[in-house]
Amino acid sequence: KNKWRPVPLATVELQKRASKFLRIGAETLMSAAEELYQQGYISYPRTETERFRPEFQHQPLIQEFASQIGGEFSNYANSLLNNGGFQMPRAGQNDDQAHPPITPAKAVDPQSIGDPTQRSVYILIVKHYLACVSRDAMGKETAIEVKMGSEFFTATGLMILERNWLDIYAPWERWSTGQGELPPVTVGSRITPYSFLMKEGRTSPPQAISEVELISLMDRNGIGTDATIAQHISTIQERAYSIKDDQQRFHPTKLGIALVEGYNSMGYQ
User: Fold this and answer.
1) Cα 144 to chain center, whole Å?
2) Which of 106, 115, 249, 262 has its CA 20 to 30 A from that of 59?
3) DSSP string spanning 78-144?
4) What is the percent of the chain with per-residue pLDDT over 70, rounded to a whole number?
5) Average model confidence (pLDDT) for the chain?
6) How close are the terminal C-alpha atoms of the chain, in Å?
7) Which residues are designated catalytic?
8) Per-residue pLDDT tens over the stretch 247-268
9) pLDDT per residue as tens digits for the range 92-115
10) Which of 213, 167, 183, 174 is CA-nearest to residue 15?
């Protein structure tokens, strides 16, 4: 099994990852990204492009991180250059033919960035870029099927052989089946179960929509652009149509529900 490295970073994906990993709202993110761009730390942050041009020079940028004294980025960049870890990035589907993917424009010590939000965004962009030019993670998956009487039970386990890009994207990106590693067994082996458990469960209503889900749905349905999605999300909060909780999930207010019901009653679905 391989866990593919991510494709180059576009605006909508940056907004989703910042919300998921950093708990930063889309508008706050874009403000921080704009500041980083103005300071020359990252490339232009409003882009739909998910592929690098053939002439993009990756080696000098990676070398710049490798030449820093110690630190997570320096150590990983050196492994890319010296241990055969470098691989040309995958190409995503989208290309706006105007701007490159979002990348670090130069290597700086994140601790030298005074604003904590800007620092976190810079770290995310650097980690994502270094993951893009890394090799895929590799592992072996084991599936066990056990027959007890006329019933069949299955379990799946994963052994990671090479973490590669997962090393730099820690702690945000993980790879697991959720069941851990399985013991080595051969086909036809007999086992003795030590317990049988019947667990009770019940369905539950879906949670309120998260910012990651909202951005994805807006992008999929053509609501806004990479440049305006954050503003639209901010506007519905400013007008008190919805509120966002600490878990980055949105809840409609009575005013917001009344607005939608009003449109529905007038035939504007």
Assistant:
1) 31
2) 115
3) HHHHHSS---PPP--S---SSSPPB-BSS---GGG--SHHHHHHHHHHHHHHHHHTSPPEEEEEEEE
4) 100
5) 92
6) 45
7) 44
8) 889 999 999 999 999 999 999 8
9) 999 988 899 999 999 999 999 999
10) 213
User: Residue with structure tokens 């150590």?
Assistant: 75
pLDDT tens sequence across 162-193: 999 999 999 999 888 777 778 788 899 998 88
Token pair for 135: 């090799």
Q: What are phi and psi of 123, to 5 degrees?
A: -60, -45
Instruction: Decide the pairing of beta strands 2-3 and 137-148.
Output: antiparallel
How far from chain centre, in Å, is Cα 193? 39
Amino acid at 16: K
The tokens of 237 are what?
């909060």
The pLDDT of residue 69: 65
- Helices 72-82 + 58-66 axis angle, to 10: 130
Give dist(CA 218, CA 59) in Å, integer: 36
Res 107: pLDDT = 92
**Tokens of residue 231, six digits:** 């503003």
Tokens of 25: 């709202």
**Got the DSSP string for 174-227?**
----SS-------TT----------------PPPPPBHHHHHHHHHHTT-S-TT
Amino acid making up residue 35: E
DSSP bridge partners of 249: 210
